[in-house]
Amino acid sequence: MLIRTVVADAWGTKCYYVARGPGDECVVVDPGMGVTDRLRKAVEAHGLRPRAVLLTHGHLDHTHSAAAVSSAFGIPVYLHPADHGMLVDPIPGLGDEFGPRFERLLGPRWRWQEPTDVRPLEGGSVLELAGLRLGVDHTPGHTPGSVMFNLSGDASIRSYCLVGDVVYAGSIGRTDMPGGSRAQTLASLRGLLAKPNDTVLLTGHEEDSTVGVERTANPFMRQAAASGPVASGPVG
C-alpha cells in the first residue's frame, strides 16, 4: 500500500494520495490550498494515475484545490450531500471566526471555483476506485457531511481509516462552526471505537494515531465510550 501526503500551504491540512503501489492508479483525498502542482509532481514521481478526488468534508482548507485537481486530471469529486453547499459557496460554512480569516488570507481577487463533476457519498457504501475498496462511514459532528474512508491494509498494517477532522491525535475537530454538533461527534466516535485497536487513523492535520491509542489517551473518545453503548467489533 502506498499512502503519502502533500501538506497544504495553509492550516497544515494533509492532502493524501493513496494507491496499491507505485505505477498504479490512485485516489486523492482532501486537496487543500496550493497543493495542485506539488501533488502532480508527487504522483508523477511514483508513476501514479489519479482517478478520483475524495473529500472527507466541505471545509475550504480541505476543498480549496478540488476543482483544480479534478480539472487537471479529468477526474470526479466525491462529497457527502450534506456538505454540498460548501462547494457552492465555501465561506459561510467557515463561520464568523474562520470565514474572515480565510478571506484575508486569500485576498480580494480570489474567486471560488466549484468543481463541475461532483458525485454523492453515502454512508455504509463501498467505493471501488483505483483498484481500492473504500468503505464510507457518515460521521457528522465536525460538519453535517463529514465522512471517514476505511481501507484494508497489508501484511504490516491491517487497516486504515482516513478520518478528516472528526478526530485528531488526542483531540477532535471543532464542533462550534456552522452545522457542527458535539453530540453528533461523540456518536460518530462511538462508531470509531468499534474498529480494531490497530486501525491506523490518518488525520486531516498534524500527527496520525491508532484507535487503540485514542481509546485510552483521547478524552473525547473516553467520553464517547462512557456516554453510550459501543457497537461490538474485533479489538486487535
TrEMBL record:
<dbReference type="GO" id="GO:0016787">
    <property type="term" value="F:hydrolase activity"/>
</dbReference>
<keyword id="KW-0378">Hydrolase</keyword>
<dbReference type="InterPro" id="IPR001279">
    <property type="entry name" value="Metallo-B-lactamas"/>
</dbReference>
<protein>
    <submittedName>
        <fullName>MBL fold metallo-hydrolase</fullName>
    </submittedName>
</protein>
<dbReference type="InterPro" id="IPR051453">
    <property type="entry name" value="MBL_Glyoxalase_II"/>
</dbReference>
<feature type="domain" description="Metallo-beta-lactamase">
    <location>
        <begin position="12"/>
        <end position="205"/>
    </location>
</feature>
<dbReference type="GO" id="GO:0046872">
    <property type="term" value="F:metal ion binding"/>
</dbReference>
<dbReference type="InterPro" id="IPR036866">
    <property type="entry name" value="RibonucZ/Hydroxyglut_hydro"/>
</dbReference>
<keyword id="KW-0479">Metal-binding</keyword>
<dbReference type="Pfam" id="PF00753">
    <property type="entry name" value="Lactamase_B"/>
</dbReference>
<keyword id="KW-0862">Zinc</keyword>
